Amino acid sequence: MNTRLLATAMAFALAAVPAAAQQKVKIGFLNTATGPQAAIGQDFRRSADLAVEHLGGKMGDLAIEMIYEDDGFKPDVGKQKTEKMIESDKVNFLTGYLWSNILLASYKPAIDSETYIISANAGPSQIAGEQCSPYFFSTSWQNDQTPMAMGEVLNQKGVKKLYVIAPNYPAGRDMVAGVKRTYKGEVIGEDMTKWPDQLDFAAELSKAKAAKADAIFTFFPGAHGVQFITQYAQAGLKDTVPLYTTYTIDALSLPLIKDLALGIPGTQFWVNDLPNEANKKFVGDFKKKYGTYPSFYGAQAYDAIMLIDSAVRAVKGDLKNKAAIGAALKKAEFNSVRGSYKYGNNNFPIQNFYLQTVVKDAEGMLTLKNEGAVLKDHQDTYAAKCPMK
Amino acid sequence: MRVTPRLVVYGLFMLALAMVPTLAQVLAEPFLVTLFTRMIILAVAAVSLNLILGYGGMVSFGHAVYLGIGGYTVGILAEHGTTNGFVQWPLAIGISALYATVVGAICLRTRGVYFIMITLAFAQLVYFVGVGLYAYGGDDGLTIYTRSDFAGLIRMSHKPSFYYLCFAILCIEILIIHRIVHSRFGLVIRASKSNDRRANAIGIPTFRYRLAAFVIAGSFCGLAGAMLATQADYISPAVMHWTRSGDLIVSVVLGGMGSLFGPAVGTIVFLLLEEVLSSLTEYWQLVFGPMLLLLVLFAKRGIDGLLPGGDRG
Amino acid sequence: MLLLIEQSLNGLQFGLLLFLLAAGLTLVFGIMDLVNLAHGSLYMMGAYFAATFITWTDSFVLGAVLALGAAFLLGVAIELVAVRTLYARDHLDHVLATFGLLLFFNELVRLVWGPAGRTIQLPGILNTSVELLPGLSYPTYRLVVILVGGLVAFGLYWLVARTRTGMRIRAGASDREMVGALGIDIRKLYTLVFGLGAVLAALAGIMAAPITTVSIGMGERILIVAFVVIVIGGIGSIRGAFVAALMVGMIDTVGRAFLPEILRGFMSVPAANTLAPALASMLVYILMALILFLRPQGLFPARSG
Q1: Which of A73, A80, A86 would you mutate first to test chain B, the one with the most B CBs within 10 A?
Q2: FRET partner for A99 with CA separation of 20 to 30 A, picked from A48, A120, A150, C9?
Q3: Is the pLDDT of residue A6 over 70?
Q4: Which CATH architecture has domain A10-141+275-350?
């Protein structure tokens, strides 16, 4: 639910409220609250709420006002909500943004209005490269990085022949390109599936089996990951052709995949059990409050709020001083749940990537376990194309 | 056109639309202009659909495709450095017309539910072409970094100016459709809606007329696509999704099929309803779904049918 | 060769699943002349019911049977409350009203079951694969889907062609006034047929659930393809739906499986990799446009005019 009514025709009837003197920091959070992807949105928002709670509802002396908007998984709606938050709510920061297409649609109005936009998930290569901007920051990653880490893992495991199955949309293609960057063996087959309509992967799994691959690499986010792994297990491949994944198994999909996920490795910039204080507090309180483990989407949203907090406090609440805010954001001086990180020239994090695997915790609940860093202080490849220094 | 109470209501409605930028300034709510620009653009699309759906009885379930065709024409040209609006927009209309001619020639051979389904199938086809346009962003869509330029005549990036451009296009479109409907051509279209066989029997080759109407509707919607892409500085396959075609049909029926202003009113009411309901509850479709059902059952002629007086149009 | 057989089985399985969904759709259309976009919602509801009942009863079969019963009741309820009033209306009204129902059910599911979706755990024995030929093993559950789909197809044929109810159904399809005049309660027959359609949709949903999981909007994705099937087959024709479902299932699967290799034969590998998935997703629609171009009434027109 929204914190206030939208400026619509209702505004005709209502007297206009003049922008009050700046007593609070307004954060616009674009989320996907309806439609098939709402489950991710729920985790995303819960984590942002938790961050606000941990901050006691304040950033320095300023009260936090969160404005949640739903993009309905449609780029043009997301763009319109972004403009509404900029023009009508006059937010100081924009964050959220789950999907590349919605971020790309919203990017120009945000940058043109010089509103800081902190993407807590989407990180398309255009924005990491040529179209980078001082008003954009990411608390996630660029698509290439995680599969590049997986490529290294495949080399270490001695996989000679790899079969690749991924959905045919830009992120899927980025994942495939990423793994090929570091994987040194031979890619013997590559199938791009129809997105998001295709839920049955029988044809692709049959081909992978017939090709006698050493391993399968895959990327299927959200509900598709559940389907893929279930069908992979049903096809009897789990004992013969090991599966390596990125963004396929997470805290949201684990309760659905259940034991079929045990032992399937993935790579990630953050894992539930990373041993730092901020993370212990985040994961512990999240689990206490909602009864489940947070997902990496949640970790990114939590970090986005904390990053904004660090900047607001650094400028002592002077939200007019945009240059100082930008400089403070760039320092990333806050306790990230992934451990400290630096920003590269394109304002994407330079960070570690870990190998994770699925295990059962003390209570028998499925969770992800960190198996050590694969890439350290890794910067994405598109940074070189970004003209910013 | 006789002056009826209904016409007065529509006149006031158009006047209110003309006042939006002024009102936005008075209320210090610049977002109103943004919001209403998008509504007016979608109204252009709905009014174009009304020509074939309302007057011609052709239930096209793939009308949103033209939004994509028009939008991608502008986007792809801009990507290659052609930002001249006098090239972009006519081309958007032309390609839409071409597509409508080819697809219409195939689809109009079928009738009734087959027509609904084949227009849907073609829409899906083009949707997947959009998803497969990997060079132009594929599913991620294409950001348009430079707006169309009409030799400096209109400040496209100035929001009120762009709003008035869109509003003027809507007015011209309504005027043209009025002329079409009341011409001999329009008579044939309407005759073929009520009884195509009889119209054919008395020697009118209705197929040609229906195809022409299909192409005109497609061209206007293609123009709306060019406008939408310009307003959003962005185009993606999502605007061509089949539910978007459904939204357009809902707008037309809500406003009143076969009424000149109805679809424009319908679009704006539909989008406002969506905004208001979705701001009240996350579960707004739980309310909206049954509302559609009630609309069909009890208010078949839409908002237009609820207005007082006068014959239609 | 083994791969070809395996892919054919995949196509057959997908085709039969499509048939289950399309049969209900075409039955309802053929008899009541109703375009039902909410058919996909019944598919979804069947799967959600099954997910819940299977958890309660701890038995796949029992849960599925209960879910079918629930779907029948739901279908009857929808017919009595909403759909009944639509028969006298035109197709546009059907599209709009059932579009409204579709939105309603999606939100209802989100409210009741939450946004996250469900999975249906198969009994261990079904979660493996069996060796059909030396070197060709195939998932057991998919064989079950093929079996069930085949049985239902046969059952429907028998019902429509050989039983008294079937006779009434056929009579109702060809001349509704006459059937009414002969003293058959046509309203009751319509309710029954709609309920039967709901059961078929739910059965498709339940059969698909262990493979594709249970989620909001699962119905819409497959519904469009089911519409393609009934249009290709000729709306109202069960036989047409069966033939068209198998055609679509095969073409979709075979296209996905072999198109990249075929294209690589006469173009560069990156170009083929770009074109193949796009082309594969369009094949079904191209097929439909082609068939309607040649035969505007579909392959087996159920009635003329």
Answers
A1: A80
A2: A150
A3: no
A4: 3-Layer(aba) Sandwich (3.40)
